[in-house]
Structure formats: C-alpha cells, structure tokens
Amino acid sequence: SMAMTPMPTPPPLAVDKSKLDKTLYIYNWGDYLDQDLVKQFTAQYGVQVQQDSYGSNEEMIQKLVAGGGGYDIVVPSDYAVAQMVKKGLLDKIDFNNIPNYANIGEVYKHTYFDPNDQYSVPYFWGTTGIAYDSAHVSPAPDSWAVMFDPKYKGEIAMLDDEREVPGAALKLLGYSLNTTDTNQLQQAEQKLIEQKSLVKAYDATNLDNMKKGEVWLAQMYVGDAQRAAAERPSVKYIIPKEGATLWQDNISIPKGAPHKYTAEVFINFLLDAHNAAKNADTVEYPTPNLAALPYINPADLSNPILYPPSNIISKLERVRDLGDQTQLYTRLYEEVKNH
Q: Where are the domains of the chain?
C-alpha cells in the first residue's frame, strides 16, 4: 500500500543563477510533461524551455547517434538507458545539483540498467496493456487475443514500437517479451502479419485514436488510457491475463549536452514533491516520487490500474536490453510493417 506519511524535505538547492543558460532543450515522449510546470520554471529561473517529441526509444536513440539535436534532456525507458550507456550517448549526472533525488523511492533505484545510479533519474513508471471502448467491445476482454480477433477488423490500433508490438504477440503465445529464440520470434512475426489486415493504425501513443473513438481497441500505455477515459468514459484499460510490460522511464542528460547545469536544476525542480505531484496528476502516470504521493489525486493513488497490486505486478515483465540481438526485433518489426 502507499505509505502516506510525508517524507522529510530535502535541503533546497542553492541555484547559481549566473550559471544558468537562457534556453533548455528537451527531447521527450509526446504529452509527457505538465506545461504549467514548464512556465513556472521559466518564470522562476528565466530559462526558456524548447521541447521536441519522439514516439519510441529507437527514434530518439537514432537521432542522437546521427548527431542530431543538441539536447540537454532526454527521457529513455529502462532498456534504452542501458543501450545509450553502452553507446556512450549519456553523461554522468551531478547529483549534488539534485538534492530532491532523495524523494525518489529506493525500489526505483539501483536498477539493472543503471546499477550505480549515474546516468538516469526515475521519471514515471507504468504498464502497457489494452484500452477498449466498452460501448462497442463485449464481453470485456481479458487477453491479448482480442487484438487478433477478426470480429474487430479495422477497429484495432497497435503501438508503433519494435519491442511493444512483438511483445504483445509473444505474451499471447506464452513467451517472454525478451526471447531470442528464433522459432518463438518467427511465430510472433507470423501472428503479427496475420493481424495486420485487422489493424487500422500503428501509432506512437493511440491517445487521439482512443479519445476520438477512431478505434475500439488499442495497445496503450496506462496513463494515456486514463487520459482517453477522462474524455471518453466508455474507455477501459486492462492488463491482459498473459502478462504485459512493466516499464520505467527516466530523465537522462545526453553526452555533450550544451546546458548541463541548467538541465540538472530543471530535473531538481521536477523532483520537488509538489511539482512531481502536479506532473503526475496531469500526465496520469504512476510516479516513483514517494514525497509526491501525499499530494497526488487520491482517486489515482487508490486506482489499481495505475498502482497495481503485487499479484498483478508479479505477472509483468520488463523489456531488457538484448545487445546485438536487438536486431532480431528490429528486423521482425520491419518485416511486419513492410508486409
């Protein structure tokens, strides 16, 4: 359960305003940062914040590898942090500038992808499951099988992601979403090729698709499903019985970021208990910031979809960095998309 005792407040950061830059460049997932907080940061520190967005970790990594961007902040998921560290794409963070890091729960630190907590700061976490429009889909689905059901041809949307899309097929088949077994991957590819004629869209989030009722079923990240449901109450979200992805997104600083100190001041600002709560209430994702929990919308905290009980968590699987074998997934997904 969520402990509601307020945590001790970390010491405030003594910001050296003479070291702040005029602009901060952020490369983030779309709709994944409360814009009032951005305005507040600008008002408080006189720093303009420029934001670009991406739809997958792979898209973001490709842009950085190509030397694009000049970004100060990126938001990679767990396995992507591991890949980026290996590729030399991330800078070590100076945690002296981030006293509010103490607000982050220990369970979100010392991860397999950043064991010594040098390159990443936990941002949000969550699950990837199925959003469905209960006005059109019945009975209520409990399995990934519904995403492959010809009955819903043209009413299905998948994410546009080389790990999440194969992951759904692998889970349905009873396999790990990190498998490198070529026979299992071939079965998943076949399933996705058969599914393709049913799919209306492969989309970065499916937030608009679901909000506007463009589709009845969508593979979605939990917070986006919650936001769709806020505008379209017939939208529901499930974690399929076969299991699903458990993920953690993180804030990192790219190697050679032009405004590193300013980036660290911004990260510290986001990790303030009240700011983190406001951000969580806006984007509707579970926060790793324990100090924020007393200030979060209580309906969200008690919502088992956002903060799943341990018996559900135990059925979930994290996407791992597969090193050279990542190309198995890149190739599989290209085959499906090009079919």
A: 17-125+248-307, 126-246+312-338
